[in-house]
Amino acid sequence: MLKRNIALLAVLLLLFVGCAGMQTMTTKQQAAVWLEIYNAQYDDVYSVMTNPNSTPAQKSMALKKKEILIQLWPLLRMYVATIDGGVMPTSAQVVSITELINELTAFAIAR
């Protein structure tokens, strides 16, 4: 499960970077990528925290990721609601979400 989540995260990051180099992603595409990353990281945290064989180091990492996920969720919900309302998200919304996503991906890369 953990390896699948890391692989998914890597593919999504490559997709995100590749699309950014070729053309700008739409706000809906960007939201979809962010939600996939969020869901993969949520699943990873859940998997580690419910696995009795998880090491203390894994649990510590999962708790740090959980803190970021807690901060990220309301921002993602607001971003999606903004898009669904037909309004363009602000650059502050994008920056806030991107910073938290970057923190999550830094944990995946640090392993």
Question: How would you summarize what this structure contains?
Answer:
This protein is mostly helical. It contains four helices and no strands. The mean pLDDT is 86.
Would you give an account of this structure?
- With 111 residues, this protein is mostly helical.
- It has helices at residues 2-22, 27-50, 56-84, 91-110.
- It has a single domain, classed as Four Helix Bundle (Hemerythrin (Met), subunit A) (Up-down Bundle).
- Helix 3 (56-84) runs antiparallel to helix 4 (91-110).
- The longest helix is centred in the middle third of the chain and has 29 residues, at 56-84.
- It is elongated and about 45 Å long.
Instruction: Outline the low-pLDDT stretches.
Output: none
Overall pLDDT = 86
- Principal-axis shape equals elongated
CATH second-level architecture: Up-down Bundle
What's the gyration radius in Å?
A: 15 Å
Assign the CATH class: Mainly Alpha
What is the strand tally? 0
In percent terms, what proportion of residues is strand?
Answer: under 5%
Q: Main sheet, how many strands, which sense, barrel? A: none
